[in-house]
Amino acid sequence: MLTLADFDDRLMDGFTFCKKVYKLLDEVCADEDGVKRLWLRDRLTKKLIEELLPLTHYVRSRYTEGRQIRIRWVDGNQAYDAEILSKGLFVKENLNKARSFVEVTGVMHVNEHLCRRLLYERGGSFGVRGISVDRKTKKITSEPHVYLGHEADDNLLSGILDAIAKKIAIAYPGNTVLVVQCHPERLTLEGDWRHVVDGLHRAHVDHQFDEIFLYEPAGRHTATLSRPREG
């Protein structure tokens, strides 16, 4: 089975990187304890789901006939998660930088891990909002929660803005892209996602990143926030 060492500090073609990440995911799924590892997360599956997979979605969205991408993921505490080297017409025309960096972050409810545990151990959960933990027995309880209107979408919007604000406060190398993987509290349809993205545009977030790429894996929704124009 592949390990994180097969990716760490190894420069490779963007599509090769994606293929290798998906192979690792397949190998984990095929493992005897694969489902448990994906739900409860060990170090490898945490890195796979929270860093490697989001990077594949960004690479696939940006790798074109005008921009060929190589990527180097780094497993460490440096101020970025991956380095990207680009070449092609887009670089020659100064539409993309030859060298850039990517930082990956995630947005999810604080009870997300408890919801996953319930799904694995009991086979079901009413969702993140209705979860509580008994302080004495540590028993996890899940109760239904009724959302009103765009409540869940507004919660996601607020979480994205908070995540971006935290990253803005950190010093990153020049030419850094922020990738935000979004985990909504409920199924997000196209109209729900549009509501969230419209809210982000109305917020006029002032940030230092080359771009902010948002990805919602369940519905495969994406959006991009460009760097604000100077002046």
Could you please describe the fold and organization of this structure?
- This protein has helices at 14-30, 34-40, 43-62, 89-92, 112-121, 151-168, 190-203; strands at 10-13, 68-73, 82-87, 99-107, 131-133, 140-142, 176-182, 211-216, 221-226.
- The chain folds into 2 domains: 4-109 and 150-226, no CATH class; 112-142, no CATH class.
- Strand 7 (176-182), helix 7 (190-203) and strand 8 (211-216) form a beta-alpha-beta unit.
- The longest helix has 20 residues, at 43-62.
- With 231 residues, it is α+β, with helices and mostly antiparallel strands.
- The model has no long low-confidence stretch (mean pLDDT 96).
- It is 39% helix and 22% strand.
- The radius of gyration is 19 Å and the shape is globular.
- The strands form 2 sheets. Strands 1-2-3-4-7-8-9 form a 7-stranded mixed beta sheet, with helices on both faces. A two-stranded antiparallel sheet has the order 5-6.
- Helix 1 (14-30) runs antiparallel to helix 3.
- It has 7 helices and 9 strands.
